[in-house]
Amino acid sequence: MASKHEISTLFVTIFLLLILGSSGSPRKSMRSRRPCKEMVFYFHDIIYNGKNSKNATSAIVGAPAWGNHTILAKYNHFGNLVVFDDPITLDNNLHSPPVGRAQGFYIYDQKDIFTAWLGFSFVFNSTAHKGSINFAGADPLMNKTRDISVIGGTGDFFMTRGIATIMTDSFEGEVYFRLRVDIKFYECW
Amino acid sequence: MASKHEISTLFVTIFLLLILGSSGSPRKSMRSRRPCKEMVFYFHDIIYNGKNSKNATSAIVGAPAWGNHTILAKYNHFGNLVVFDDPITLDNNLHSPPVGRAQGFYIYDQKDIFTAWLGFSFVFNSTAHKGSINFAGADPLMNKTRDISVIGGTGDFFMTRGIATIMTDSFEGEVYFRLRVDIKFYECW
Amino acid sequence: MASKHEISTLFVTIFLLLILGSSGSPRKSMRSRRPCKEMVFYFHDIIYNGKNSKNATSAIVGAPAWGNHTILAKYNHFGNLVVFDDPITLDNNLHSPPVGRAQGFYIYDQKDIFTAWLGFSFVFNSTAHKGSINFAGADPLMNKTRDISVIGGTGDFFMTRGIATIMTDSFEGEVYFRLRVDIKFYECW
Questions:
Q1: Does A83 sit within 8 Å of B107, measured CB to CB?
Q2: Cβ pair A85:B109 closer than 8 A
Q3: Number of separate domains in chain C
């Protein structure tokens, strides 16, 4: 019985050392790469081209010296800043009832290939979801999938962080594109 | 005494299982929704309109095809990008001594209602505070209160995260507005 | 032996109380200010001036009413939005093999001194690094060092957060500048 007792004490001591050790060192080992929440959405962007003001959901508002605010610039649209207010849907149908709005901007930022930088939010105000998810990151849009950061959230998404994987689900010239967004939250509250 | 001993061992074992269980699962339960720090500030925006260059603290620098850089565009200013360097005060008086600067941009991003997307910092360099707080998020500015994310901080605000609740404290046509910002930090270091 | 046993039980109880106490209070004490990873990079910005379209890595795409998209505006470039796609190098030589691209934007946002707001990513796609690091924050560029936030990361930099200290390593008129970036990650996964 004495040895059983000593084993128990040893057990506690080792455990204590492990805990104390891990709290002092970088917290790498405490973090889980298993998402605490997952969601999939689509959003739809119709860019203003001078003729579609009724349907357009986005517009060019910045351009390089060689561009203008109606037609996307040459050199892979380098320098075009686009503001958007796009409907979010649960499936890939533009005409499905929107469940929220994707609002923010993208800037085409490479001369030799299509690439953009994104800063935007998903804004929800329905019985299903209330609150917002904030995103930022590079979108090398010729890649099949691209990862950007979920940098914060409010309401139902209070303080969340995670990764959003973006896929171009449809692309129709320079008028319409649809993105599929797979959101994996790794910090939930 | 033997049973007491067994209870002790059982206790340790259950505890171990609890700890191991919680570190493997999403870390939801470890997080506190009690702020670790709270602050309230006001900031003041005077937009350049072609006549007020001395007092203006912000300026239109992006506009849609139907707009210009002196007058905010129709359709609820959709597409206007505004850069600002606004004084931060502790109360709602524009003429109070500024305690810092709110610097960054907002983009009006909805055609049918006033809404903006914000990316900015509070920059402090006084005896009271040194460092910066970085913000991003959607600002549906017709709502009484709006939540955006504190995405990071430096100096006195090293690595902070949280929620900033914005209220329009005053709004004078398209010349001046004042925002009250209630910052709640939930991650302090 | 009985007392030894009681000490063991006491030990466990105190430990339990400590753990339970720390999980309820703000998690300040659990956080380490020791970086879990450190990296140093340089990046190089050559701004388009109407004559250098071959070498330019950035361009003015937003300007105030008193500016244009070829020459940086007066009043310390207040209101100029610049989009960039800059090579990242391991040393301070512009002609060293780039290890990645710095992509995003900066906005000059103060009339009486050079100051900018940055939103950008480091994008890596080599054997050494795959993934991206996302940054945001105020850059009071006349200061010797400036801290901005690492707001997220993907790939090799999955979910990272930290502080990036920026130094202007070289500045040649309004044509070329080189920044040294010391990245300290405090959250690794």
A1: yes
A2: yes
A3: 2
What CATH number is attached to the domain comprising B143?
A: 2.40.480.10
Q: Is the dihedral of CA B69, B75, B76, B79 positive or negative?
A: negative
Q: At what angle do helices A2-24 and B2-24 cross, to 10 degrees?
A: 30
Instruction: Look up the domain containing A82 and give its range.
Output: 36-187
Decide if pLDDT at C5 tops 70. no
Nearest to C82 by CA among A65, B41, A102: A65
CB contact under 8 A, A62 and C62: yes
Residue A77: other Cβ atoms inside 10 A: 25
Query: Which residues in chain B are closer than 8 Å to A3, comparing Cβ atoms?
Result: none
Tell me, yes or no, whether C23 and C55 share the same domain: no
The per-residue pLDDT for B8 is 65
Q: Are residues B107 and B59 in the same domain?
A: yes
| ipTM for the complex shown | 0.85
C102 shares its domain with C152: yes
For residue range A11-60, list pLDDT tens digits in order. 665 555 555 444 444 444 467 889 999 999 999 999 999 999 899 999 99
Residue A143 contacts by C-beta under 8 Å, 6 or more apart in sequence? none
Same domain as C85, residue C59 = yes
Shared-domain flag, residues B49 and B2 = no
Probe site for chain B from C16, C109, C181 (most B CB atoms < 10 A) = C109
Nearest to C120 among A19, A64, A117 (CB): A117
Residues C67 and C117 grouped into a single domain: yes
Question: Do residue A74 and residue A108 come from a single domain?
Answer: yes
Do C43 and C135 fall into the same domain? yes
Q: What single string gives the DSSP state of each residue in B91-120?
A: SS-TTSPP-EEEEEEEEE--SSS--EEEEE
Tens digits of residue pLDDT in A68-120: 999 998 889 999 999 999 999 999 999 999 999 999 999 999 999 999 999 99
Spell out the SS3 assignment of chain A. CHHHHHHHHHHHHHHHHHHHHHHHCCHHHHCCCCCCEEEEEEEEEEECCCCCCCCCCEEEEECCCCCCCCCCCCCCCCCCEEEEEEEEECCCCCCCCCCEEEEEEEEECCCCCCCEEEEEEEEEECCCCEEEEEEEEEECCCCCCEEEEEEEEEECCCCCEEEEEEEEEEEECCCEEEEEEEEEEEECC
Average pLDDT over residues B74-100: 95
At residue C30, φ and ψ (nearest 5 deg) are -80, -10
Neighbours of chain C (3+ CB pairs under 8 A): A, B
Q: Which of A117, A143, A147, A151 to mutate to test the interface with C (most CBs of C within 10 A)?
A: A117
